[in-house]
Design a protein that fits this description.
Strand content: 15-25%
Structural class: alpha+beta
Radius of gyration: 22 Å
Largest sheet: 5 strands, antiparallel
C-alpha cells in the first residue's frame, strides 16, 4: 500500500469545468462510506523504507488506528498526552534505541527514524515528546555508569520509567546559560536550561552541563525541589504555536548537586557539534510524517468536497513525497553530510507546502484553532526549526526560496 491513498481525479467521477463533482449521488455515497476510506484507519506498508522487523511494520497500523483519531486532543490536553506516552511504554516502544541485552529493541537509526515518521503522522506532539525520552534512554545506555543502566534501562523497557532531556543549550557555547563544577561527592550545577520539553510529564531528565572537564551528563529531578541552599525551579510552560501539551519550559538550577551515582558520564566539550553533524538527517523523519498527515488530510477533504483541484494537489505532492522518501531510506545509509542536509531541507520545504495546501483546501474553517489543518501548520513550524544549526538553516532557506546555499564540506 502507498504511503497515502491515491485520490487520482481519474477515480472521482464526472466533473464540471471548475473541478467540482456534478454526480451528487456519488458524493453522498462517498460520505456514507467515509470510515472505510479514511486514511487514518489504513495500514502503511513501507515498501520504500528500510528492511523492518515484522512487529515494527505492524506497529504503523496500530499507531494510526489508536493515536491518529486523538491527534487534536493530544495537542491540547497534557493529561491525554501523558496517557498516550504511557500507552507507548505499555507496547514496549519507549526503549527502541536501547540495546536488546538491556531489554530494549536495539533499532538502528533507519528503523528508529521510520518509527518516528509513523508517529509524527499520527501526532506531532507525541512524536516530539517521546523523542526526548528515547534520547535520554539512549544516553544512559551508551554511558559509563553501569549501575544507572541496571537501575533505569529494564524499567524503561517495561514502560515503568520515563525521563526527558535537556541539552540544546550546548549550542550556545559562547554564552552557556548553565555551568557545573566538581565538588565533594559530585557536581554542582548553576544556571538555566532554557528549553526543556516534558515538564510535568517526566519526573526526571538527563541534563547536559558544560564543565572544565567536558560536558557532564547526569540525571536530575524535573520538578520543583529545595534541599537546603540548593534548589531546582521549573518555570511556567511556554506558549507555543503548537504542541502546548508537551509543556516545554525553562528550568533553573541553583547550586544543585548531581551526585556521582547520578552521573552518566563526560563527553568532549564539542559533543553537540559532533552530534549535529552526525545526525543532520534526523529531523527529516518528523518532516516526512507531518507531510503524510497533510496528505491524509487532503484525502479527507477530497472525500468531503469532491473537488478535482484537491485531488490534483494531493497527487502532485504525493509523487514528490514518494521520490524524496525513497532517497531518504535509500542505500547507502551513511550518506555524506551535504546530502543529509539537502534531504532534510527538501523534506522541510515539502512539509511546509503540504501543510499550507491542506490549510487552503480546508477553507475558512482552517483558521479555527481546533482544525486539523491549523494544527498541522503549527507542527510543521516546530519540526522545521527544532535542532537547527547554521548549516541546516542555510540548506533549508535555500530549499524554500529555490537558491543553492553556500557550499558545505
Amino acid at each position: 500500500m502507498e504511503p497515502s491513498q491515491d485520490i487520482s481525479p481519474n477515480n472521482t467521477g464526472p466533473h464540471d469545468t471548475n473541478g467540482e463533482v456534478i454526480n451528487h449521488a456519488e458524493t453522498n455515497h462517498t460520505e456514507t462510506n467515509h470510515a472505510e476510506t479514511n486514511p487514518v484507519t489504513s495500514a502503511l506498508a513501507a515498501t520504500d523504507g528500510p528492511n523492518l522487523p515484522p512487529w515494527l511494520e505492524q506497529a504503523a497500523a496500530h499507531l494510526l488506528t489508536t493515536l491518529g483519531p486523538q491527534a487534536d486532543l493530544l495537542d491540547r490536553q497534557p493529561e491525554a498526552l501523558t496517557a498516550a506516552l504511557q500507552w507507548l511504554g505499555q507496547q514496549g516502544w519507549l526503549a527502541l534505541k536501547v540495546p536488546i541485552e538491556w531489554g530494549g529493541k536495539g533499532l538502528n537509526e533507519a528503523e528508529y527514524g521510520w518509527f518516528r515518521e509513523q508517529l509524527a503522522r499520527c501526532s506531532g506532539a507525541l512524536a516530539f515528546l517521546q523523542a526526548q525520552h528515547q534520547t535520554a534512554a539512549a544516553l544512559i545506555a551508551s554511558g559509563d555508569n553501569d549501575d544507572l543502566k541496571t537501575q533505569y534501562l529494564p524499567a524503561i523497557a517495561r514502560g515503568d520509567r520515563q525521563l526527558g532531556i535537556a541539552f540544546s543549550h550546548l549550542r550556545r557555547a559562547d554564552d552557556p546559560p548553565i555551568e557545573g563544577r566538581a565538588v565533594a561527592g559530585g557536581w554542582e550545577i548553576t544556571g538555566t536550561a532554557p528549553w526543556v520539553t516534558g515538564v510535568g510529564h517526566f519526573p526526571e531528565a538527563v541534563l547536559a552541563v558544560p564543565t572544565a572537564a567536558g560536558v557532564l551528563f547526569g540525571i536530575v529531578p524535573l520538578t520543583a525541589v529545595e534541599s537546603g541552599d540548593r534548589n531546582i525551579q521549573p518555570q511556567p510552560p511556554m506558549v507555543l504555536g503548537a504542541m502546548n501539551a508537551t509543556h516545554t519550559a525553562a528550568v533553573t538550577f541553583d547550586r544543585w548537586l548531581i551526585p556521582e551515582a547520578a552521573v552518566i558520564g563526560l563527553k568532549p566539550i564539542d559533543w553537540i557539534q559532533q552530534l549535529d553533524r552526525r545526525n543532520a538527517l534526523q529531523g527529516v523523519y518528523f518532516a516526512l510524517g507531518c507531510t503524510q498527515a497533510a496528505l491524509d488530510r487532503l484525502t479527507v477533504l477530497f472525500q468531503e468536497k469532491r473537488l478535482l483541484t484537491i485531488a490534483v494537489a494531493h497527487d502532485t505532492l504525493r509523487r514528490e513525497f514518494d521520490q524524496l522518501r525513497q532517497q531518504v531510506y535509500g542505500r547507502p545509509i551513511d550518506k555524506p553530510y551535504a546530502q543529509k542536509l539537502q534531504l532534510r531541507a527538501q523534506a522541510i520545504a515539502l512539509m511546509g507546502r503540504a501543510t499550507q495546501v491542506a490549510l487552503v483546501a480546508q477553507g475558512g474553517r482552517g483558521i479555527l484553532a481546533t482544525n486539523p489543518a491549523y494544527r498541522l501548520q503549527g507542527e510543521a513550524s516546530i519540526f522545521a526549526t527544532s535542532g537547527q544549526t547554521p548549516d541546516i538553516l542555510a540548506a533549508t532557506l535555500g530549499a524554500i526560496v529555490g537558491k543553492s546555499p553556500m557550499a558545505i564540506d
